[in-house]
Design goal:
single chain, about 260 residues, alpha/beta, five-stranded parallel β-sheet, two-stranded antiparallel sheet, 7 strands, globular
């Protein structure tokens, strides 16, 4: 544990979460935005579905932890929505079970504290042609279709509406981009830098618009060690120092 103590924002999900700090990922974007505001904590597990997540949710988020997260961003659904394998093995989860799993995960997170907030990310679309093109010789055929993705995305959105949770509809969000199939993915499934910008922008929008007390919007949160200091950079006139604690000019994109 290092100090000072900061709010914790946990990213919990499958490969789109695990890989969110690479390729200009949305997790890296959030870490930059909240660099002196909150700790972004990664709990991403490549290939996982909602069933595996439910099996460990009480280990990742123990109810008796001394400090509970301020915000949990949850993504499962892409692997769940894959077509079932004839053997019965693999990540596919039937839609009713997926909904039950996600509801159980949400209820567990809601039980952590009165101030723990939750955002679900729904199942995104895929570039079906590229998924077929990138089939691995070491794996059985991966069947992902946008028809299945939309079904699971819609179910996630509907569940969040039922539970009063914030949700980012990734299936719709990514398709807002021109040539989305080309620009939003690295391999037809996982997010490119452009795809991640869309995801980060939607998360930041939801956080800004949510009526949470205290607010978790980055502009509303205190900046760590933001007091003026004679050790700051010296101004051009040489008479004062300039406090740089709120500077964001070096961001690739100026986030609201």
């Amino acid at each position: 544990m290092v100090g000072p103590s900061r709010p914790q924002i946990v990213l919990f999900g499958s490969s789109i979460v695990q890989m969110s700090f690479g390729h200009g990922g949305w997790g890296a974007i959030l870490s930059e935005v909240y660099a002196r505001k909150a700790d972004i904590i990664l709990r991403g597990y490549y290939g996982w579905n909602s069933t595996r997540a439910l099996q460990v949710v009480d280990q990742v988020f123990p109810k008796d932890a001394e400090v509970q997260p301020s915000l949990v961003v949850v993504y499962f659904g892409g692997n769940d929505s894959m077509a079932p394998h004839p053997s019965g093995l693999g990540p596919h989860v039937p839609l009713p079970q997926y909904v039950d799993n996600m509801k159980s995960i949400a209820l567990h997170l809601q039980s952590l504290s009165d101030s723990t907030r939750i955002i679900f990310l729904s199942c995104p679309p895929v570039d079906e042609a590229k998924v077929r093109q990138n089939q691995s010789p070491y794996l059985s055929e991966v069947i992902r279709t946008n028809e299945l993705c939309k079904t699971y995305s819609d179910a996630c959105v509907e569940l969040c509406q039922e539970l009063g949770l914030q949700v980012v509809d990734l299936f719709s969000t990514l398709q807002k981009a021109d040539d989305w199939e080309t620009v939003c993915f690295t391999d037809g499934i996982h997010l490119s830098a452009q795809g991640s910008k869309l995801v980060a922008g939607e998360i930041l929008r939801v956080v800004k618009e949510a009526e949470w007390t205290p607010s978790l919007h980055w502009k509303s949160m205190p900046t760590e060690f933001s007091e003026d200091s004679p050790y700051d950079l010296v101004s051009a006139d040489g008479k004062n120092t300039v406090n740089s604690s709120e500077w964001t000019y070096f961001w690739e994109e100026q986030w609201d």
